[in-house]
Amino acid sequence: DVDETPILLDGPVGTMLSERGVPTPSPGWSGHAVLEAPEVLASIHEAYRDAGAMIHTANTFRTTARIFDDWIERTSLAVEIASRSGTVAGSIAPIEDCYRPDLSPARRDPVGTTRAFREFAAVLADAGADLLLCETFPCVDEALLALDAALGTSLPVWVSLTTGYRGDLMTAADVATGARRLADAGAAAVLVNCAPLATIPDLLDALKGCGVPFGAYANSGDPNAYVGWTGGIDASDAYAEACLDWVRAGASIVGGCCGTTPAHIRKVASRLHPSGIRPDDHSDSGAVPGAPKGTGRTASP
Questions:
Q1: Are the C-beta atoms of 91 and 58 separated by less than 8 Å?
Q2: What does pTM read for this prediction?
Q3: Quick check: helix, strand or coil at residue 78?
Q4: Which is more confidently placed, 221 or 190?
Q5: What are the DSSP calls for 266-300, one per residue?
Q6: Cα–Cα distance between 123 and 280 in angstroms, integer?
Q7: 3-class DSSP state for residue 219?
Q8: Cα–Cα distance for residue pair 146/112, rounded to 1 Å
């Protein structure tokens, strides 16, 4: 067991939507499901809740103004659907492809980039998100702009960097430097996500000196152009053991990214809480880095 209870995030929505036969066409990907399959989306959040997830990430990774004309409606509804299962992290993604840092507008148009993030963060906050999660950022400069914009909501803001599904977009040294910059700029927690499982230990070592709570949520299995992520279900035991190792190494936030499922999260929960008694996952967001006590929410029955 571990000395202190870590925060257990949920896993991906997109993986589960594909598994349940819900179309996720580019460029909106999982964002289509908010209005086209809200019941399925709600059931996915419920599955993660029942598996033991303590934070539920709203399906807002791609519900942006650049993709959907009705982005405010989609974003607000996504937060509301997630809130039925408990404490909500409003997801904020990079402006462009999260695997193409060369496309980031952070340097060529920092003002417009910040404005886009600020408008999106405001909608997430108005919809009732408990914290904001700027996730899957391969470019530290853009992550800093997203962080600055999100902090304007007065909600706690976590930032997660990515090295990509091949682990080649950032080095551990890049992550270490970026994490310190993000922490100094006001991030309540710094994480890494959407990276190969085997690369996480070195990346967590890179996060250790950032001065704020840190953690990881990795990929499980491999991306397949025809059927999505493969090999994840059979790897749930190995994934759970890896998460326990991360916590022993100092991580206070763990969860799942692409290819993981509620089965993975359930296995992680069982490793973190072998007695079967888990903390109330939604009753006190004082456990959430950067959040005041007593501002969490309780899951709907």
A1: yes
A2: 0.91
A3: helix
A4: 190
A5: HHHHHHH-TTS----SSS-GGGSTTPPTT---PPP
A6: 28
A7: coil
A8: 11
